[in-house]
Structure formats: structure tokens, C-alpha cells
Amino acid sequence: MPEEPEQSVESSPPTASNDAWRRVQLARHAKRPHSLDYINRVFTGFHEIHGDRGFGDDPAIVAGFAFLDDNPIMVVGEQKGRDTKQKLYRNFGMPKPEGYRKALRLMQLASKFGRPVVTFLDTPGAYPGIDADERGQAEAIARNLREMARLACPVICVCIGEGGSGGALALGVGNCVLMLENAVYSVISPESCAAIIWRDSAKAELAAAALKLTAEDLQSLGLIDDIIPEPPGGAHENPDLAADLLATRLRRALRELSPLNSAELVQQRYTKFRRMGNFFL
Predict the structure, then answer these.
(1) What pTM was estimated for this model as a whole?
(2) Which region holds residue 103: left if phi is over 0, alpha if psi is between -120 and 50, else beta?
(3) pLDDT confidence of residue 11
(4) Which positions of the chain have pLDDT values less than 70?
(5) Which end of the chain is more exposed for a tag (fewer CB within 10 A), N or C?
(6) 107-115 contact pairs (CB < 8 A, 24+)
(7) Taking CA 88 as the corner, what is the angle to CA 169 and CA 52, rounded to the nearest 5 degrees?
(8) How far apart are CA 234 and CA 20, in angstroms?
(9) Cα 173–chain centre separation
(10) Are 214 and 20 spatial neighbours (Cβ–Cβ below 8 Å)?
(11) Is the Cβ–Cβ distance between 50 and 107 less than 8 Å?
């Protein structure tokens, strides 16, 4: 008798395992909107700024001034490529130290002038190459974590696709942390986790469920503040509607943070992250 075709994740009975893996696949979808797609739809007057004033520019991170309605904003986002040429140019969305230093330079500039910062997280992780290590990759990430905690302005972080490990967290210390419905945010990729735990990267689907990387998982654990809905089928099915939903939630976050002064913003951010993982409050 001929063998029956294997069922896809979409046609399998819903389980925690295949639902998490489906979210991973949607977060990595080839047509999923990236940072520049949202920047061009949500903001006006975007003026990109380049360079870390130390080594060079990193195209894996885009950053600059923009306006949300009439409000001046500093926007920083991790940018993946769409075609092969762009993927190579953007280094597949994996920032190097100069990218994180560029982001920090601009976030500190925004803090100096009291402009809110909006960051978009979308990376499989920080670039692990030798050249990045030679230029202080770990130090650059650690410095961002420390300095973002001290920014005297509202900071809103949005995971729009893949939130991979410290590469994403280096732009993720905010007063308000949001996730798109089909984004994922985790300390490690499912494939790498499966290779470590089971010595078999093919078990990535099981690892995805164990990692608790979906927006619902992270909200239940208190690691994010809210989930932004996506159009049916995912953000790639209707990027304009996805951008409208994102813009609506950003406006609300800015309204909620606007009454806080600089000291209160820093304290709120500090308290928020100190509470994470503490089960004895």
C-alpha cells in the first residue's frame, strides 16, 4: 500500500507543541514585515542616522528620528533582508557590536532631548563571528542593557518577529514591552535548544513548546506587557493592517507613559525588570 503523506503542522490536531512551532514558522515567514516595513507605514519623516562613531555602520540595525502623528520619536530596529542581496547586506538581521553601539548612541541622544524611544526586535541573535567577538560583542550587549535601564525618557520595545537571545534583549529593556501575536521571544532558538537537550536539532518542535516562547506564554509569565493582534493568517497577509494595529498600541503606550517624569520612568523600568523571575513577591 502507498504510504500516507505526512500531516503538516497546520493540519495536525492543535497541541502546545505544534502551536508553538507554527508561531516560530510565522515569525520567520519570508514575507513577514520587517522593521523598515513598519517604520515606513507607522511613522512619518523618518531620517536614518548611521555609524557608531567608533568603528563603522551596521546595516543590521536601522535607527533615526521620526514622527508618530505629531510626536517626535527615536526609532531603532533590527532589520532582516528580503532577497539574497539584502540578506547579505543586513547580515540576516544579526547585529555586530557597532550596531548596538549605534543604537545606544541614538537612544542616549533621544534621552538627552526627552524624545521617546521605540525599538523593534527582530533577530535570530547577535552575530557570533570572530570579527564581532574581537570588537567586543558581549560588552556591547551588556552596556546596552545597563544604559537602557538608565534612559531618562519613555522606552517602548516591540518584538515584531524573532526575538533571539541577547541579540534582541540588547534593544529590549523598556518601560513597555510588547509582542506581535505571532512573534517569538526566547533565550535560544528551538533548533539549538533541541541540539543541546536531545542531541537532535530535528526535535525543534518539541523544544519550541518547552521554551515557552509565544506571546501568550511570555505575557502569562509577566515578561511582556501586552500582545498586539495580527491580521488573520499573520502580519504578512496584510502588512498595512498589521501596521495600523501596531500604531494604535504605540499611541496608547505613549499616552500611558507621558505623565511620568524622568526619575519615575527610570524607577518604573528598574522595578519592572527586577520583578521578572521573582516568585516570592
Answers:
(1) 0.90
(2) alpha
(3) 40
(4) 1-17, 279-281
(5) N
(6) 107/74, 107/76, 107/147, 107/148, 107/151, 107/155, 108/147, 108/151, 109/74, 110/74, 110/151, 110/153, 111/151, 111/152, 111/153, 114/152, 114/153, 114/262, 115/65, 115/72, 115/73, 115/74, 115/153
(7) 50
(8) 14
(9) 11
(10) yes
(11) no
| Count of C-beta atoms within a 10 Å radius of residue 262 | 13
Q: Measuring CA to CA, which residue among 196, 187, 141 is closest to residue 162? A: 187
In whole angstroms, give the CA distance from residue 132 to residue 25. 28
Encode 7-64 in three state secondary structure: CCCCCCCCCHHHHHHHHHHHHCCCCCCCHHHHHHHHCEEEEECCCCCCCCCCCCEEEE
Which candidate, 238, 127, 131, 115, places its Cα nearest to that of 180?
A: 238
Buried b (16+ CB within 10 A) or exposed e, 116-152: bbbbbbbbbbbbeeeebeebbbeebbebbbeebbebe
Domains of the chain, residue spans: 34-271
Cβ atoms of 136 and 96 closer than 8 Å: no
The x, y and z cell numbers of residue 79, run together, are 532589520
Sequence-distant (6+) residues with CB within 8 A of 274 are none
Mean of all residue pLDDT scores within the chain:
92
User: Alpha-carbon distance 57 to 69, whole Å?
Assistant: 29
Q: What residues contact residue 221 under an 8 Å CB cut-off, 6+ apart?
A: 212
